Every structure is written in structure tokens, then in C-alpha cells.
């Protein structure tokens, strides 16, 4: 398997080089040269596999011979052996035809652990095998940072710097990042929004000389390994429900801000997973919902919400979907992304709008609706949703029929967002790992939201 850029100037690179490159050197995003196909017979044969075994099979379709099978199996086992649940991502029933897939059983209680435990171990593997210097640079709206840090803290040959928007993540999210005192970890609190953090990251990676001089590697979902790891749990959920005869009209409702998690579902569907409907759930930062429903992609004014990890106006994975929407035409993809940069928006024609409408349904959840859903499911079904998952459940309730089965991706443990839970007058207990954070000292540096300010810190750190 080789990888190519959505903008056409990078192609024919192997899996390991694709992981190390992160953002393509032409400014585009890397995608597989072709999408492997999984037959109905193969799906049936996978029904008896554990999560670790399934992940190994799916990764092997994208890795080929670059990583020996025995090494790949160990990477996967090491990555998911850290999870608190034996199924890694268990599927739980909420009520008739409504399920959640709990993706928060990893070390930092967030779905990002599923991809970042694997990517952290993969980076460590590559560093050991090749003697490569790994300097990871990432931005977080809350969960990526803690998961990425947990994946590589203390590992030889790796240093990591994470940017987060100062005072715009939950307290638990902040503590999970900033109470880490390992010498190879740097936390920068950026004066601005997550979109500012993400812009700085992409522009620094686009400076190819700087990127190569300081051996920068990507941990955000611009890195194709993140997407590949997230496709696995779509297959796993389908296989668990198929064994119960519940997969004929199976939907997934996905809380998303950066388009990465739902793009993984789109990729799984393109691989042959029979998904009936992909439901895109956003909050009041509804750029993606507007695109699906109106065909307009236009970043707007940032709005702080009770689901801060989705408070995003510029979706970094959107370019990958545009690439496929336009028939893998790299010139079209590059031109459309240039249009967003120069004119602040893009509008797709009616034929493309019809394709988007066939690929996705979408619903934007306002703050009051989010809290109402948390309260309703706690009162009626004794299940406590975090505010991001509540957005996904709200979208599922709005957009699916009674004859359809819908799995909402439950993206975080509610203890990470007690600010929202408390507004519902619900008292929860913290897991002991989270409770312990409140007594630890924090380690971070506040910086201005400019490329220069961040660059200066990186030069000192790396």
C-alpha cells in the first residue's frame, strides 16, 4: 500500500513514511493510493475476532509488508492492553434500537485513546527501528492532547509539544495534560481558540524547511494513522450487532468537530462495511451541519458550548472528503481548499449536494438541547452521557426511524465534563484516576496565538 496527497504533488510513499510525514509536503492530506475492499464473506469470518485481532486484520490491509506481522500484532496488543474494558470499545444498549459504543475505556477516558495509543507505540517502534528523531507537534480542543501525551510520555527518542486554547477546555482535560511532569512533554496554552491552535500547527507543518529541520511529526487527525485506527471500531460495532441480527439497517451517529471520526466511518463504508446512514452531529459551531444540509462550507464565529471538544469552525479532515466527493481529482481538491482560504467559503453545485446528502445526514445541537438529552437519558434510562455523546444521541433521535438501529459513538467519560453535568443537577463520582489529578501541580506555559510565539518555544524545546 502506498499513499498520496489530496493535492497531487506527493505520491507513492509507504506507510511508515506517510505516518512520519503527517501533513503532506504539498499542504494536502495523505490518503491511501486505493481503498482496500472487504467482502461480505470476510466480514462474516471476522465475527468471532476480538477487538485486538480485528484491529490487526484491518491495519494489515494498509501496512502490507513494511511492519512484520508479528511486530504489528505486538503493537496492537500493547496499544489496547492499556484499556480498562476487555472488549476495548463495548457496545451498550440504551433503549429500543438505540445503542452507544463506549470509546472511553482508554487511559485518558476519551475516544482519542483508541488511535493515539496505537500511534504513540508506532512512533516509538519506528524510532527504535530506524534511529529516527521523533518530535511530535499537536493541537487539541481538549482530548487529543492528553491521549497523545499519555501515548508517548517518557519514551526514549520522542519529545512532544501540545497546544491547547487557554481556558477553553474543561478542567479535567487541562489537568490530564498539564499535570504530566515528564521531561519530554511541553504544554503550551495558546491565547485564542482551538482553530488558532490548529492553524498554527498546519502552517508550521507547511513550512517544509522548518518541519524537516526540527523533525516534526503530526499527532492530530491530519495523520492518516489516526483515521485508520478509528475505522476499526465501526467494523467492531457492526460485527457485534450482526451476531444479534441487528445490522440490516445500521446507522452511526457521530459527534464531530474536525470531521476525523466521521470520516473514519465514511472510509469504513467505502471499504465495504454496510452502513445504512452516517449521521453527523455538531453543536452550535455548525459549519459541517450547514455543509451537509445546504452545500455551503463557511467558517463562522466561534461559539463556546457545553461540548468544548467540538467547538471548531475549521474542520481539518474536510479536505479528505472533498477529495473523494470530487472523484479523487487533486486539482479540484486543491482549488476548493484555496477558495476557502481566499474567499472564506465554498459552495458546491446541486449534483454534489445530492451526493453529500446520500453520504450523510446532519443535525446541530444547541446548548439547551444538549443538557435536556443528558437529563432525559439519565432519568429515563439510568445512563449518564457526556455532552458530546449527548449531541450524538440527540441527532440520532432526530434523524432515525423506528425500523433502524443506531449506534452513537460515545466519545468521552462524563467525568471529563462535570461543568455540563452539574448544570443538569446530576452529581457524579470521579474515577480515582481523575480524582487524583486535582491535587497535582500543573506544568504549562501561556503563549500568544502567533506562529512566531509557538515557533520560539519549539526551537527551545526541540
From TrEMBL:
Catalytic activity: O-phospho-L-homoserine + H2O = L-threonine + phosphate
Coiled coil: none
Record flagged with keyword Lyase: yes
Domain Tryptophan synthase beta chain-like PALP intervals: 99-341
CC cofactor: pyridoxal 5'-phosphate
PROSITE patterns xrefs: DEHYDRATASE_SER_THR
EC numbers: 4.2.3.1
Top enzyme class: lyase
InterPro entries: Ser/Thr_deHydtase_PyrdxlP-BS (IPR000634), Thr_synth_N (IPR029144), Thr_synth_N_sf (IPR037158), Thr_synthase-like (IPR004450), Threonine_Synthase (IPR051166), TrpB-like_PALP (IPR001926), TrpB-like_PALP_sf (IPR036052)
Residues covered by the Threonine synthase N-terminal domain: 2-80
Pfam families according to UniProt: PALP, THR4_C, Thr_synth_N
Gene3D superfamilies membership: 3.40.50.1100, Threonine synthase, N-terminal domain (3.90.1380.10)
Keyword Lyase: yes
Alphabetically ordered keywords of this record: Amino-acid biosynthesis, Lyase, Pyridoxal phosphate, Threonine biosynthesis
Top-level lineage group: Bacteria
Associated pathway: Amino-acid biosynthesis; L-threonine biosynthesis; L-threonine from L-aspartate: step 5/5
Family (UniProt): Belongs to the threonine synthase family.
UniProt xrefs under PANTHER family: THREONINE SYNTHASE FAMILY MEMBER, THREONINE SYNTHASE-LIKE 2
Biological function: Catalyzes the gamma-elimination of phosphate from L-phosphohomoserine and the beta-addition of water to produce L-threonine.
Name the record gives this protein: Threonine synthase
The organism of origin for this protein: Paenibacillus aceti
Amino acid at each position: 500500500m502506498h499513499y498520496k496527497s489530496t493535492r497531487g504533488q506527493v505520491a507513492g510513499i509507504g506507510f511508515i513514511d506517510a505516518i512520519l510525514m503527517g501533513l503532506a509536503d504539498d499542504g494536502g492530506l495523505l490518503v491511501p493510493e486505493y481503498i482496500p475492499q472487504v467482502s461480505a464473506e470476510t466480514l462474516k469470518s471476522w465475527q468471532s475476532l476480538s477487538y485486538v485481532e480485528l484491529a490487526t486484520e484491518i491495519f494489515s490491509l494498509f501496512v502490507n509488508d513494511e511492519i512484520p506481522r508479528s511486530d504489528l500484532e505486538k503493537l496492537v496488543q500493547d496499544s489496547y492492553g492499556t484499556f480498562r474494558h476487555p472488549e476495548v470499545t463495548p457496545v451498550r444498549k440504551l433503549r429500543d434500537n438505540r445503542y452507544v459504543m463506549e470509546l472511553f475505556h482508554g487511559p485518558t477516558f476519551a475516544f482519542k485513546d483508541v488511535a493515539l495509543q496505537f500511534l504513540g507505540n508506532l512512533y516509538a517502534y519506528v524510532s527504535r527501528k530506524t534511529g529516527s528523531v521523533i518530535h511530535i507537534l499537536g493541537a487539541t480542543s481538549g482530548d487529543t492532547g492528553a491521549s497523545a501525551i499519555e501515548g508517548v510520555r517518557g519514551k526514549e527518542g520522542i519529545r512532544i509539544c501540545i497546544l491547547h486554547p487557554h481556558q477553553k477546555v474543561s478542567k479535567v482535560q487541562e489537568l490530564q495534560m498539564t499535570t504530566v511532569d515528564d521531561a519530554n512533554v511541553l504544554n503550551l496554552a495558546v491565547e485564542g481558540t482551538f482553530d488558532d491552535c490548529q492553524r498554527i500547527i498546519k502552517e508550521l507543518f507547511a513550512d517544509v524547511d522548518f518541519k524537516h529541520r526540527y523533525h516534526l511529526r503530526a499527532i492530530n487527525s491530519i495523520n492518516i494513522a489516526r483515521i485508520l485506527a478509528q475505522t476499526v471500531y465501526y467494523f467492531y460495532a457492526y460485527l457485534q450487532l450482526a451476531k444479534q441480527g441487528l445490522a440490516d439497517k445500521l446507522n452511526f451517529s457521530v459527534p464531530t468537530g474536525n470531521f476525523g471520526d466521521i470520516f473514519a466511518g465514511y472510509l469504513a463504508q467505502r471499504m465495504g462495511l454496510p452502513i445504512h446512514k452516517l449521521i453527523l452531529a455538531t453543536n452550535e459551531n455548525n459549519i459541517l451541519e450547514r455543509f451537509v444540509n445546504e452545500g455551503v462550507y463557511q467558517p463562522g464565529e466561534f461559539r463556546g458550548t457545553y461540548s468544548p471538544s467540538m467547538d471548531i469552525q475549521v474542520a481539518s479532515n474536510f479536505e479528505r472528503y472533498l477529495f473523494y466527493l470530487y472523484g479523487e481529482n487533486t486539482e479540484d481538491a486543491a482549488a476548493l481548499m484555496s477558495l476557502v482560504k481566499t474567499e472564506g467559503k465554498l459552495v458546491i453545485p446541486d449534483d454534489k449536494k445530492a451526493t453529500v446528502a446520500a453520504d450523510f445526514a446532519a443535525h446541530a445541537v444547541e446548548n439547551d438541547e444538549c443538557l435536556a438529552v443528558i437529563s432525559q437519558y439519565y432519568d429515563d434510562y439510568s445512563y449518564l452521557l457526556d455532552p458530546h455523546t449527548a449531541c450524538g444521541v440527540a441527532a440520532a433521535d432526530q434523524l432515525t426511524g423506528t425500523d433502524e438501529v443506531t449506534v452513537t459513538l460515545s466519545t468521552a467519560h462524563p467525568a471529563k465534563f462535570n461543568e455540563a453535568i452539574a448544570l443538569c443537577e446530576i452529581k457524579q463520582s470521579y474515577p480515582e484516576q481523575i480524582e487524583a489529578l486535582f491535587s497535582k501541580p500543573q506544568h504549562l506555559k501561556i503563549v500568544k496565538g502567533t506562529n512566531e510565539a509557538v515557533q520560539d518555544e519549539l526551537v527551545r524545546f526541540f
